[in-house]
Design brief:
Helix content is 32%, strand content 20%. It is of the alpha/beta class. An eight-stranded mixed beta sheet has the order 1-2-4-3-5-6-7-8, sandwiched between helices. A four-stranded antiparallel beta sheet has the order 10-9-11-12, with helices on both faces. It has two domains: 7-273, Rossmann fold (3-Layer(aba) Sandwich); 305-374, no CATH class. Helix 3 packs across helix 4 (155-163) and helix 5 packs parallel to helix 6. The relative contact order is 0.09. Helix 2 links the parallel strand 3 and strand 4. The radius of gyration is 24 Å and the shape is elongated. It is built from nine helices and twelve strands. The chain has helices at residues 7-24, 84-92, 119-138, 155-163, 189-202, 221-233, 260-273, 313-324, 348-359; strands at 34-40, 46-53, 61-67, 96-100, 143-153, 171-177, 207-212, 237-242, 329-333, 339-343, 366-370, 373-374.
Amino acid sequence: MSFRLTRPIVAAALGLLAGACALAQDLAASLREEIVMVPKPGLFSQQLETTYFRPAGDGPFPWVIINHGKASGDPRFQGRARYLAATRELVQRGYAVVVPMRQGFSKSTGVYVAGGCNVTSNGLAQAEDVKAALQFFAARPELDPQRVLVFGQSHGGLTTLAAGTLQLPGVRGLVNFAGGLKLDNCQGWEHELAEAFGRYGHATTLPALFFYGDNDSYWSPPVWQAMVQRYNESGGHARVVAFGNFGRDAHDLFGSRAGVPIWLPEVERFVRALGLPFDNTGDIALLEHKAPVPAATVFAALADAAALPHVGAGGREAYAKYLAAEPPKAFAIGPGGAWAWRANMADAMEAALARCAEHGRGVACKLYALDDHVVWNKE
């Protein structure tokens, strides 16, 4: 008996495989993370591996589609994009987040549509995947189909601007982080890239926000400045945030936790100008504490470092750093001035207590603060 694999059967099998892999992965429960295989209709239907995050509650939520960049090498070996630092900030502000892996990337089916040296056509081909994701998720009852933003980083930024030309229903604005496509094996690629931006700007009426830095390993300032100029001169409506140098590579701004203080206020300004909400509903930890969390006490205000018992100036300076750290986090103190803290760890409580005891040469330490509240009781 012979068995012939057809495209639908292969697509379905890959979809089941992605679902099985999702069960084995550590998904961010605090962000209600899940993996969805999104159908992309066409002559040969494809499946797009898509990561979906959403706030607590039933919605309907405004939402953001984030378009990923392109790593070097075979796109099929590129990992599933999550952008957890950025996603966390958006979910905290009431937004659901959709991150589709485009055709040929990661576990999405099909092949990557390169387009040769034609940057414009490359971006438009990628934008069809944005359209498929938007159509699929707009039908979900917990999402508001009239309040959609499209973000993109690097190649995803180019994809975002191309998607802006498709007049996608419900899309209110575009945010481009270091967008472009570097084809340095093509003669005159910088000029072709700027021309692509010009064509996209001419064909959209959507407001846009651009982020570019000076020490970007992909685009020197003259290259990205030419891209921005062509976009706006052709009819686009982009405000540019030129943030100068960032770390070792400005190209990494959006994917880095350290970049959040730079882009978040600018995105808030942009989003509010569109008449959309952007209020922080409360900090969300990307990890959860392994052990049961002690109840908060009224011993002192969280930010009052002077209220810490036992510790000296060094402990109070460390406590200031603790306050700025990422949860899950814990600050422990003990008699004789012992202190320790740990952050961004599921076992932060246990680790802080153990380090405090070690620092105090075996003293019995207690938790003073946990995440955003004090848990210390008077002795």
